[in-house]
Amino acid sequence: MVSCLFWTPDGSLGEGVLPQTRDLARRVASWDFVKKVAWLGRPPSWWQADVIPAEWSDRRGWLQALLQASGNEEHLMLIPADAPLLREDLSRQIWQTHRQHKADYTFADCYPLGLAPEAVSTFALQGIAALEQAEELPDRQGLFSCLLHHVNHFDVETLLSPIDLRTWRITFFDDCPRNRLLISRFLERAQWSLDRFLSEVARDRVSQRTLPAYWKMQWTNAVAQVPAYSDPRFYSTTRVDLPLEDLRRMLERVGRWMGGGVLLPGFWGEVALYPHAVAALRSALELGFELVVETSGLGWTSEVLNELGRLKGKITWIVEADAWEPQLYRQLRGEGFEVMRQTAQTLRDMFAGRVYLQTTRCDLTEDHVENFYIQVKEEGYKPLVVGYNDMAGRLPNRRTVDLSPWKRHPCWHLQRGLHSLADGRVVSCHQYPQGEVYWGNLLEEDPAAVWERGTGWMLAHQEERYPEECRSCHEYFQFVF
């Protein structure tokens, strides 16, 4: 028999979880191969079993807490405390495989996260703790992430899923409204046999379209540049700026409905040219959004840049440089290289480790991508290479490599992204910045009603009946957030 430790990345769990999450410890304790269960960290008020108090601020602290909690146990089973779909059959297989092969560590691979525990020997745990150097909190993959760089030091056993669902990026954790809705949609089917349940998860992509994980929001349609590989026709000739009060109203309504997520305000527009950029960024951060700001690096005044340095919250910058050589930059984006470079340096100094310099890989840049990557990395930036977008076949094919899967799957942007223009309209896809195909208006309608209009599109993708607007698209497999 084995002792089970319930854990979360920070050792705590909120009160507003599903009833099945609250019942998980009782269910696990009833399994005939489980000796006892305990919570590691700071349990919620509804927790009824044993508690091992602990606190940690990084992976090393978490591993030390696991070691101290292990006591005289030779092996432990680590169970995510917010995984209401954790399966007894899969957990039993993990424990039997671990014992049979006398493994150091045993895990389930290619399954959705949240269906299986991890098993580890306390002897191996000591070695993992000695090797770990990461300063961030443990992530949802638990010990597996700690082992990635040291896997050859340990005897690892793997329980492979009969269906490889890694690319589906499914997490059955009761940790946010989006995942909570996902779990509720699969609760009844989770009682099926393992093979039948996995087949259903692989089939039903419509149920996996829950709430947006990210929101591409246009604050202004004004731009500072049109790259050589793009086309002016995709940019409006009539300027529209979203009024600040309307912007804040949209942020509040949509943010409350989404339950948080990633906001990208540079959607077909330059954030620096929005008259209320700093106030809008501050409002988004105060409402709990994680910000990813895409910018050409042009249009920022020194006063505004100084204000940006005082923003509090999680904010990442992507500077669309395309080239780190003045002559090539001029060919690709026109004038402004030194201004862009100075803006990038200022952002790098203020937001250390959170500034990316981006280039688009296409026939115009292919010979320079490697040098770009090396140069910007040497100067303290994070390089970002994105694929060329031919706007669903409406631009010439400038791709130098085709990374699309051998078999098409439903669009990630359709499943996880919300895309709105400066007049409030929600477009069906980021490929249609003029609003040629749209679902509704966030200034006039409930966001849930607007989002629901995309369900039919998702069903069409699941059934491989792709709408005309989607048939020539090469962006469907690009996972954003």
Please tell me about this protein's structure:
The protein is α/β, with parallel strands linked by helices and 481 residues long. It has two domains: 2-167, Spore Coat Polysaccharide Biosynthesis Protein SpsA, Chain A (Alpha-Beta Complex), CATH 3.90.550.10; 214-470, Aldolase class I (TIM Barrel, Alpha-Beta Barrel), CATH 3.20.20.70. It is built from 17 helices and 16 strands. Strands 3-2-1-4-6-5-7 form a seven-stranded mixed β-sheet, with helices on both faces. A seven-stranded parallel β-sheet has the order 13-12-11-10-9-8-14. α11 (302-308) links the parallel β10 (290-295) and β11 (315-320). The longest helix has 15 residues, at 244-258.
- Please describe the biggest sheet, giving its number of strands, its sense, and whether it closes into a barrel: 7 strands, mixed
- The end-to-end span amounts to 40 Å
Number of strands: 16
The CATH architecture term of the largest domain is Alpha-Beta Barrel
At the first level of CATH, the class of the largest domain is: Alpha Beta
How many domains, in number, for the residues?
2
User: How large is the radius of gyration?
Assistant: 24 Å
**How many helix segments?**
17
Strand order of the largest sheet: 3-2-1-4-6-5-7
What is the CATH T-level topology of the largest domain?
TIM Barrel
Shape: globular
- The percent range for strand residues is 15-25%
Quote the average pLDDT.
95
**Helix proportion of residues, in percent?**
25-40%
Could you name the CATH homologous superfamily of the largest domain?
Aldolase class I
By helix and strand content, what is the structural category? alpha/beta
Spans where pLDDT lies below 50 across 5 or more residues: none
